[in-house]
Amino acid sequence: MNESQELDSGDELAALLEAELAGTEEGNESPARDGPAAKKPRLASAAVASSCPPHPGFMGGICIRCGALKDEADEVGVALSYIHRGLEVSRHEAERMRQGTADRLLAHRKLLLILDLDHTLLNSNRFQDIPPQFEHVLHAQVEAQQADAPMLYRLPHMKMWTKLRPGVRQFLEQAKESFELAVYTMGDRDYAREMALLLDPGGRLFGGRVISSGDSTQRHVKDLDVVLGRERAVLVLDDTEGVWPRHRDNLVQIERYLYFPADAARFGYRGHSLLERAVDESAEGGALATCLGVMEQVQQQFFAQGNASTADVRPLLQASRRRILAGVRVLFSRVMPRDCADPTVHPLWQLAVKLGAECLRNADDWVTHVVATNITDKTRWAEGQAMHVVNPSWLWCCAYTWTRAKEDGFPVAARGAAAQLAPPKSEAEDLAAAMAAAGGGTAPTSQQPADGADVDGAGAAAAVDGAAEPEAVDCSTAQQPPVETS
């Protein structure tokens, strides 16, 4: 056996990772395991030992190639503990693995799709956050649902209720034909794996690709640095844009699935959860189906370019998004705070531009839409000019449905009435609410709710510009008949 053969056979890291990736590709590995039993690093031969440093990776602080203990002077690598607990690889090795994954997926004409859990695929709430008046409703739903296809789970060992988003099983089955699927949640490891088992009990869809908050390299941030895939060939489906600061161009933002009252309150929609309204999304025409259609179109365009090795999903996704409001010219009226010196940095202005609209500072005859929270002089002028007058939720509905929504479904409120506003004031508030709700939610830190009290939730978002709590416009249920849940 020559030296190269000995190196190949002795590379424990490569063997482990190849086995892991082969298992996840075939879909025969459960996401609830820690991976295969770690092999004790053997004493390397002189030929193998001479190849280190640099060390390709460590398992529990021991180099898998040469068996040496990790030294403080060794390079800080990339932690891949979701593949195997205690696994860390060098940046060079991580890059090699990314290229290998990319080559494998491209050969199968697939992209990598990263899926968020909370408010994207499902909604979880702890027992303590469920208002008592809804306990019997939930129990009745559990009793009435189909045993072979449950959508609502009571998880006593986690003291948690979990409601799957309508259409999620169909979504996953269809998505796996065009994408390799991975989960990335801000919940902890146990929560991530429990939810993955609910969605994928046989391990066919996710395999070992279940990433949790402890795997992230920064707190409260999701990043593709822990994902084995090329950024240009990765799409992300998540309800929270702020959690992906470096990869917004890869993101398909989905409307939040707020089934339980506590989470609706966290995001500023007290009283407007789907459970309280006794409705649910449509499985066939809801948010998941809409987003999947967009992502499949991007996947088709990606491989239609001829050279998949240089194609990039990001400009394709951007172009698709900018077509939504192409030709629309927006004038805002009393939507920006009075002390906003530069309206172009306001989230609604940026959203409109991202959707392809042109935003104006002053009124002119070419305005097509006036966006306002209440009736103003500009809205009266616009109506006199037969222009569209809508509230800000229209922009968000266009973004979530990937189409120009019908304007007459988004009227402005009379002066002094509650405004219909979708997101919190700032990205920081939105991110704080999302973190508080991750993994089933955290209890409010100021005080615990008394028995029978309504749950506000930690970090509940304030209404924009000091208006009353917003009346949420749910695009998913506004566009099709509601489905009664009780």
Automatic annotation (TrEMBL):
Keywords: Hydrolase, Nucleus. It is an enzyme of class 3 (hydrolase). This is RNA polymerase II C-terminal domain phosphatase-like. It comes from Chlorella vulgaris (Green alga). GO terms for cellular component: nucleus. Pfam families: NIF. SMART domains: BRCT, CPDc. PANTHER family: RNA POLYMERASE II CTD PHOSPHATASE (PTHR23081), RNA POLYMERASE II SUBUNIT A C-TERMINAL DOMAIN PHOSPHATASE (PTHR23081:SF36). It is found in: Nucleus. NCBIfam families: FCP1_euk (TIGR02250). The lineage of its organism: Eukaryota, Viridiplantae, Chlorophyta, core chlorophytes, Trebouxiophyceae. InterPro entries: BRCT_dom, BRCT_dom_sf, Fcp1, FCP1_dom, FCP1_euk, HAD-like_sf, HAD_sf. Its EC number is 3.1.3.16. CDD domains: BRCT_CTDP1, HAD_FCP1-like. Residues 450-467 have a biased composition (Low complexity). Residues 320-412 form the BRCT domain. It catalyses: O-phospho-L-threonyl-[protein] + H2O = L-threonyl-[protein] + phosphate; O-phospho-L-seryl-[protein] + H2O = L-seryl-[protein] + phosphate. Residues 19-42, 436-486 are annotated as: Disordered. Its main location: nucleus. Residues 476-486 have a biased composition (Polar residues). One of its GO terms (molecular function) is RNA polymerase II CTD heptapeptide repeat phosphatase activity.
